[in-house]
Write a structure and sequence with these properties.
It comes from Streptomyces avermitilis. It is found in: Cytoplasm. This protein has 364 residues and is α+β, with helices and mostly antiparallel strands. It folds into two domains: 21-53 and 65-176, 60s Ribosomal Protein L30, Chain: A (2-Layer Sandwich), CATH 3.30.1330.10; 181-357, Alpha-Beta Complex (Phosphoribosyl-aminoimidazole Synthetase, Chain A, domain 2). Helices cover 31% and strands 23% of the residues. The protein has a six-stranded mixed sheet with strand order 10-12-7-13-11-14. A four-stranded mixed sheet has the order 3-6-4-5, with helices on one face. Strands 1-2 form a two-stranded antiparallel sheet. Mean pLDDT is 89; it is low at 1-9.
Length: 364
Amino acid sequence: MSAVFDQGTPSPGTGASYASAGVDIEAGDRAVELMKEWVKKTQRPEVLGGLGGFAGLFDASALKRFERPLLASATDGVGTKVDLARQLGVYDTIGHDLVAMVMDDIVVCGAEPLFMTDYICVGKVHPERVAAIVKGIAEGCVLAGCALVGGETAEHPGLLGPDDFDVAGAGTGVVEADRLLGADRIRKGDAVIAMAASGLHSNGYSLVRHVLFERAKLSLDQHIEEFGRTLGEELLEPTKIYSLDCLALTRTTEVHAFSHITGGGLAANLARVVPDGLHAVVDRETWTPDPVFDLVGRTGDVERLELEKTLNMGVGMIAILPEESTDVALATLADRGVNAWVAGEITDRGDHETGAALIGSYAN
């Protein structure tokens, strides 16, 4: 049965409409058309249908290859970094940040990323801008090995300014139950391998913006000698996506656990995967944080411990694995272009120790 609605006779009166309230449906439709080519690049063979349906479809029969498949899910956003993208007029990089925040959380348990959805909230739909954001998300999905199966673009006039926007996303992955990674696998003597961050990633920008712009009055277009580029270019550097690198490690070595270094810093996130009775010790002398971390600390007179509990300090992902596997692990990551090093080890925990700690001073 079909539904027929009496449209009545149109009147040129001054009655309210969705458009007069600030919502442009036609602009939204154009944005969808512009983003289709980018979404298509993320498709996996399990994805059914195309963009524009009410729901994204993923063929779950693909999971029959698992004995006991466990689904892993995560959701996240990019935070106040989006405001820097708005100010700079650069919209095709924060999608990488979004995918990294979601999919690198999922891979921590050893799960293979499967698919992702996004939510883009804007004050006013600018089709080319929305398409650029989705382009970045799609490129990130390709780097993470997952499909972008759908999303939503919502126009909120009156709540957000015409140029304001925010992004969020949710993802799903799968891992075989007997290959689930985590604290129960970690043993005394395991090595702690650090993988270099590409910069600040997507955490701590409230502190960064407060220090650099409100206190120091720096500008985004200001050239910073230590960076070899402008401050804005440095701050907008996309978050590195480690998903496929981590999965490669699980195929070549006996990985016990991963830790995604996000809000809370290295020690707090590492402590989340260290079991009771054991202690992760990370030696600061094994690496030198990028100059941007020094700039934030020095400019804002931020104490080191405050920096370390807010920013990643140059480490984006940690792998914990048997000490005898370190050579293979480092070779695997090097082959994939990932800068990694042995940063510490797992020891017995003392009476007054927390799950993880940093020791020593950063290398010069």
